[in-house]
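S1.2 Input.
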Amino acid sequence: MIDNEALHYLDNAATTRVAPEVADAIYKTMTNHWGNPSSLYTPGVESKELLDKARNIVGRTLGAEPGQVFFTGCGSESNNIALLGAALARRSWGKKIVASGFEHPSAALPLARLAEEGFEVDFVAPGADGRLDVDALADRVDKGTILVTCMQVNNETGAKQDVTKLAARVKAANSRTAVHVDGVQAWMRVPVSLENIDSYTVSGHKIHAPKGVGALYLRRGYNIQPPYLGGGQEKGHGGGQEQGVRPGTENLPYAVGLATAARRMEKTFAARAAHVAGLNARLRAGLATLDVVLNSPEDAVSEVLNFSTMRVKSETMLHYLEQTKVYVSSGSACSRGAASHTLGAMGLEPRRIDTALRVSFCAENTEADVDALLNGLEQGLKTLAQLR
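S1.3 Output.
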């Protein structure tokens, strides 16, 4: 990495290092703006003004109005609010939910809960290249479909989905169907358009803000039933913060941190894209000499590249690379070493799944990081026990 040549951190899809200017903004907010944003006296009013400013910055990066942005504790919480809230608000007229077959656990688990409660969840698997046929997904929508959800960028392969086309097709089939997009891996990596999209999720720790903060976009006038008991003072259940969508005193320092990170990433969008594309191309060229199999499609986001060695188990290679301070993952960080849900949904053979590694870049990565990885892989393939 740029400031530590001995460290080769290549797992930025799992989490990113907090940027110094983001940490500084958080510290200054903690120490200078300690008032409760809900209080009516001066320190509280000043905190509310700062919260509104942060909301405006995040909204601008999404092309949304400030009142459509709700601060949450993370992307997972945002997905839970969006999915449970949409389904609960619509169960009087329908039970069908259509979802992409490789959703992040923060979407897959709420969908499983809804299935247990009587909703019909129809998963549409991606192709072997990781791409989703959005036409096939939209074709599943009927008059009883209350919700469609899809990741914009897959967290394991980096495959991009055309959510703009999907949302338009869904609304054409049933204008009442809610459309939710998990944009955690897409935000600040690909352009975002919210046309025909009712809810959209983002997360802080993927863009150099801290863990513990995220945001949820909700289209103005869009109806959800917040799943929390404290989901709205007007209902007599508790706090009415975040317009009743997410109760609890707002985490002002982290909201400012999220906005600072978003503004920082917004300013460097083009330069980052070019830099990371170069690293991805360098890695692809090096892997071509090692006789491995790529699992990410050619047009995946440059930040993520998934491949299989076909010879050494993922965990074995991961720990071998760790000895040289090269850090990659074997899939989603939330899976904690379990077999890849995404690669399984793509229908890949077990050996390909068992030997898969995910590399994920950020702007701090260098060509030296790529070369260290390639050297480690080459040595590992020569020395580690091969699968039979």
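S1.4 Remarks. The first strand starts at residue 8 and ends at 9.
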